[in-house]
């Protein structure tokens, strides 16, 4: 099977990232604006926490001594915490200090020169988990067969969102504050979260719209070279094709014009 010929944006996360492929999801919108320039790869794993996603990331980035001329991952978004914040005895729970340590490991796997998977061409963004609604999630849990207890708390998830900000500041990477963006748009009222959350945890179309907007703002602000309007298509637009010798004008180009 032929390899992709375009450099990539990789989205690493849990079910909220996985759901980014839903109609009007943030991953779908990213794929649209970067169409023909960068491929969007969704590695959202439903139910995963930071402990379980580390081996996945390690297999997504080749070791330095195993690299070929394959395309590079130009942007890595890391969006976990909703499951880590689950309460015991839920097996997805990761203690807050361990969560911070796992975030450091994920970032340093890609950004540290000492890492065998160091990727200097990759930019990293950390996303905070969104706020959750205990009322909505409790209703969802009660409807399961057999019924389940409420296993997530608003204030606990908030603490995990704050941990993302702390780790981002510590490591010098940029953060996309999904928590604050959605909470403020809900006027800081739990009952208003229903516009952005489908079940108290996962996002609606409006929730993903917020994520896409603030993610694109972060990209264009912190990594202006990745603004999709500044990239060129990997293969020429049709009006640039040489009719007499199409093959010569249809060679793969670097989207960044390098």
UniProtKB/TrEMBL annotation:
InterPro entries recorded: Iah1-like, SGNH_hydro, SGNH_hydro_sf
TM spans (from-to): none
Matching CDD domains: Isoamyl_acetate_hydrolase_like
GO function term, MF aspect, one: hydrolase activity
Keywords: Hydrolase
Positions of the SGNH hydrolase-type esterase domain: 11-210
Domain of life: Eukaryota
Listed Pfam families: Lipase_GDSL_2 (PF13472)
SUPFAM superfamilies linked to this entry: SGNH hydrolase (SSF52266)
Keyword Hydrolase belongs to the record: yes
Listed name of the protein: SGNH hydrolase-type esterase domain-containing protein
Taxonomic lineage of the native organism: Eukaryota, Fungi, Dikarya, Basidiomycota, Agaricomycotina
């Amino acid at each position: 099977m032929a390899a992709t010929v375009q450099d990539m944006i990789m989205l690493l996360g849990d079910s909220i990232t996985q759901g980014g492929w839903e109609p009007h999801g943030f991953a779908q919108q990213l794929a649209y604006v970067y169409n023909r320039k960068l491929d969007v790869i969704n590695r959202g794993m439903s139910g995963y926490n930071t402990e379980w996603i580390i081996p996945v990331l390690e297999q997504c980035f080749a070791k330095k001594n195993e690299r070929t001329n394959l395309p590079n991952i130009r942007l890595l978004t890391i969006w976990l915490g909703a499951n880590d914040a689950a309460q015991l005895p839920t097996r997805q729970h990761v203690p807050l200090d361990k969560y911070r340590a796992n975030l450091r490991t994920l970032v340093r796997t890609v950004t540290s020169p000492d890492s065998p998977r160091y990727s200097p061409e990759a930019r990293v963004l950390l996303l905070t988990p969104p706020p959750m609604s205990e009322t909505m999630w409790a209703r969802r849990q009660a409807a399961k067969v057999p019924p389940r207890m409420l296993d997530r708390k608003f204030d606990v998830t908030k603490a995990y969102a704050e941990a993302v900000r702390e780790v981002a500041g510590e490591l010098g990477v940029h953060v996309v504050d999904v928590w604050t963006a959605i909470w403020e748009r809900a006027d800081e009222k739990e009952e208003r979260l229903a516009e952005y959350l489908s079940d108290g945890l996962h996002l609606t179309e409006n929730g993903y719209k917020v994520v896409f907007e603030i993610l694109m703002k972060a990209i264009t602000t912190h990594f202006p070279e990745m603004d999709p309007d500044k990239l060129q298509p990997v293969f020429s637009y049709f009006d640039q094709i040489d009719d007499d010798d199409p093959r010569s004008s249809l060679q793969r180009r670097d989207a960044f014009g390098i």
